[in-house]
Amino acid sequence: MKSFCGKFLTLIHFLAAMTLMLIALITILWSAYEIVEGIFFSDRTAFIPVVLHSVGAIIIAAAIIDVAQYMVEEEVFQEKELRNPEEARKTITKIMVIIAIAVSIEGLVYIFKAGTEDLRLLIYPAVLILVSSISIVALGIYQKLSVSVETKTDSHLVLGDDEPQDSKMS
């Protein structure tokens, strides 16, 4: 029964990832279509907002593709359980980097958009970039703390000890 459930969940993850990829591809193609249509068939004053909107949509599509790729790599082709702290750190880091990049680029797109419309609209993109920066700093702190835990775990495994080295010295 476990084997069937595992295979079924792997299939569900694969289908979800492929659906996300399809949605992202449609979004990219639609955005490119809007830009081409804006160049040749629309009035020129509306072109910059269309480009900015399309860039934002493509950025979101790229983030969706990264999430789908992660799902396929981690849930379809890899074992389901994280085997050690280093693997968990790398997985969390990858997800957080995807999120931080998507949020910061989206903030930049909105800054350009606000600059063409109304400067009072700059608060939202500024908050997006601030949140992205804070998430990168938090990720750095997480990296630092988890690497120190990994080294302690690795040293205990190598030495075969159950207690920390500091307590043996005192």
Provide an overview of this structure.
The protein is mostly helical and 170 residues long. It folds into two domains: 1-79; 82-170. 85% of the residues lie in helices and 0% in strands. It contains five helices and no strands. The chain has helices spanning 2-40, 47-76, 85-117, 123-159, 165-169. Helix 1 packs antiparallel against helix 2 (47-76), helix 2 (47-76) runs antiparallel to helix 3 and helix 3 (85-117) packs antiparallel against helix 4. The chain starts with a helix and ends with a helix.
Low-confidence stretches: none
Helix content: over 70%
Total strands: the figure is 0
Helix/strand structural class: mainly alpha
Q: Helical segment tally?
A: 5
Mean pLDDT figure: 81
Order of helices and strands: HHHHH
Number of domains: 2
Short synopsis of the structure:
With 170 residues, this protein is an all-alpha fold.
Strand and helix layout:
Elements: H1 2-40, H2 47-76, H3 85-117, H4 123-159, H5 165-169
Essential attributes:
single chain; 170 residues; mainly alpha; 0% strand; flat
